[in-house]
Amino acid sequence: MNAQPLVAIRGVVKRFGHTEVLKGIDLDVMQGEVLCLIGPSGSGKSTLLRCVNHLEKIDAGYIRVDDEYAGAVVRNGELHEASDAEIATYRERVGMVFQHFNLFLHLTALENVAIGLTKVRRLPRHEALQRARAALADVGLEHLRDSYPRHLSGGQQQRVAIARALAMEPKLMLFDEPTSALDPELVGEVLSVMRRVAEGGMTMIVVTHEMRFARDVADRVAFMDQGLNAEVGPARQLIDSPTSERTRKFLNHVG
Amino acid sequence: MTSLTAYGEVRDPYATPVPRRHPSHWISGCLALLLAAGVAYGLATNESFEWSVFGRYLFSAPTLQGLAVTIELSLVSQIIAVLIGCALALLGESRNPVFRAFAKAYVGFFRGVPLLVILLICFNAALFVPQVGIGTYSWDTNTLITGFSAAIIGLSLHEGAFAGEIIRAGFMSVPEGQREAAHSLGMKRRVVMRVIVIPQAIRVIIPPTGNQFIGLLKATSLVSVIGGGDLLTRAQQVYGSNFKVIPLLMVVSFWYLLIVTIATFGQHFLEKKYSVSSGARAGVARARLAEEPV
Ligand SMILES: Nc1ncnc2c1ncn2[C@@H]1O[C@H](COP(=O)(O)OP(=O)(O)OP(=O)(O)O)[C@@H](O)[C@H]1O
Ligand SMILES: [Mg+2]
Q1: Among B181, B264, B31, residue whose Cα is nearest residue A106
Q2: Is the Cα dihedral A188, A191, A193, A196 positive or negative?
Q3: A170 burial class (0-12, 13-18, 19+ CB within 10 angstroms)?
Q4: What is the dihedral angle through the alpha carbons of B199, B201, B204, B205, rounded to the nearest 10 degrees?
């Protein structure tokens, strides 16, 4: 019954120069679970997500997703620093959605979604395009497939970015404040797409300041403070009746 | 009909306002015409210009051969310079600190030393490298280094440093977030470079490269100090024997002006073609039309 977690984050330390940004994070995420990371600015939420995707190299501890380690591979029962190819393979199955969308500006919406399928998964072009079209349809944007990112609204761009990540069929999706750069009236469309992804059974780690989303969609919420995982609990319980004073203060502030 | 407003009486407020006059434009225009006429008169009547000599040498064999060499030097050096520049930009992006240091040192050296000095060093390479060889083959540097080959080497090495900077700036113009997004899809560094960075950087690289080429067309005249055989070298050889200095320099100026003007047109064309605002404009209309709620 007590299955092994899909994501295991253990004792993760990250330093930038002399400042320790992550001071030993422990966190598990089960298969199909949605975990929201909340916490004040500078507490290390983005850094933790970037470590999970190995966009940052961790200084101590480990991060395991399914049977693969971030930035390391198992050889003869030991962890060895991963090669570029091994890191790329690891990232294939960890999707990431960024605050500023980071779409490829020289490619259309459809090409943005298809490029990972052709250049990484090496699918034949027609099959990649077909899948990309389906992925765009899933976020309600099939009609805009030939538009370039600069002609899309922020909400549309973020939905393309979600489709781009989902098309790779990841085991885990990471979202770093996906609605923070959006005009208020565009937040809803992105959150509703994320809600559907969650309902589809995707395992997700979401950094967000949207407390209603966290409360309604997340299974658990982790409150990060000064590089530490200060409090973790079931979403409603943590948001409605936090145990620590620090969490309560933060929630009063944002709520 | 007259209408009365708080600001006074206006016969027809809907009429286009009477245009402003610009007398200063007319005055300066007349002065410029006068000046141009004066210069033209001076050029035509000043004995030392010897326009008949100009006409005789404009299409003479040495002039045209020199012109061909100038164009050849520019094209070949520009192509090699871009190759060197690509290599430097890639080395500069490398994670290997030795490669990065090399790229930095190269650019630092060739940006800091004047082209004229570099040409002289290349021309006199035999003084410090008497022999060059690959494996068991070896040659006397003196037989390899002619005015022309030294010119190609010097120009390419020097322009390569600037091409490297242009290309590096092009790479850096692609936002870091896009590279991260590409990496997060599982693309390897080489693929990210090929499918994400370079296609976007090219728009930023082309216009300054066009500028660089125009600069290079003129900079090739420096190779006359090492007998590079270019347009200026040939003209100097001719006026060295017949002393028609000014007419021959006018011939040289004429050809430089012509090729630079042609290159400038080419440059404008490329700039238009690669400008960020063009292309995909149809997308806007389509995106707007197709806009519908989720
Ligand atoms: N590349 C970097 N170099 C140096 N310091 C960094 C770097 N990235 C992040 N930091 C520092 O690490 C700390 C944590 O940053 P992080 O972006 O993870 O915070 P966050 O919780 O995501 O905050 P926010 O809510 O503002 O996004 C901050 O103090 C930040 O200045
Ligand atoms: Mg952040």
Answers
A1: B181
A2: negative
A3: buried
A4: -90
Cα B91 to averaged position of ligand 1 atoms, centre (Å): 29
Per residue in B94-140, pLDDT (tens digit) is 999 999 999 999 999 999 999 999 999 999 987 888 788 887 888 88
**Alpha carbons A5 and A10: distance in angstroms, whole number:** 12
- pLDDT tens readout for residues B173-190: 999 999 999 999 999 999
Atom 6 of ligand 1, nearest CA residue:
A16
Report yes or no: A34 and A20 within 8 Å, Cβ to Cβ.
Answer: no
The size of chain A, in residues, is 255
Considering the domain B49-291 in this protein, what is its CATH number?
Answer: 1.10.3720.10
Write out the E strands in B127-276: 131-134, 137-140
Chain-chain contact of A152 with B180 (C-beta, under 8 angstroms): no
Supply the DSSP symbol for A144: G
* Residue A45 CB less than 6 A away from ligand 1: yes
In this predicted structure, the answer to whether residue A175 has a pLDDT above a threshold of 70 is yes
**A222 touches A36 (CB < 8 A):** yes
Rounded Cα distance between A115 and A103, Å, is: 11
Q: How does pLDDT run across B191-243, given as a tens digit for each residue?
A: 999 999 999 999 899 999 999 999 999 999 999 999 889 999 999 999 999 98
State phi, psi for B46 to the nearest 5 degrees: -65, 120
CA dist., res. A47 & res. B224, Å (int)? 59
* CB spacing of A91 vs B191 below 8 angstroms: no
pLDDT of B276: 56
Does A18 contact ligand 1 (Cβ within 6 A)? no
What tens digit of pLDDT does each residue of B8-54 get? 788 888 888 888 889 999 999 999 999 999 999 988 888 878 888 89
> Rounded to an integer, what distance in angstroms lies between the CA atom of residue A111 and that of residue B233?
53
Ramachandran region, residue A59 (left: φ > 0; alpha: ψ -120 to 50; beta: rest)? alpha
On the question of pLDDT at B88 being above 80, the answer is yes
Query: Which residues, 6+ apart, have CB-to-CB distance to A50 below 8 Å?
Result: A56, A176
Distance spanning both ends of chain B, measured CA to CA: 56
A 10 A CB-CB count for B242 gives 11
The tokens for B230 are 């270019």
Does residue A1 carry a pLDDT above 50?
A: no
Q: Is A119's CB within 8 Å of B187's CB?
A: yes
A60 vs A26: CA distance, rounded Å: 12
| Residue type, position B271, single letter | E
**pLDDT score for B70:** 96
Residue appearing with tokens 């899309």: A152
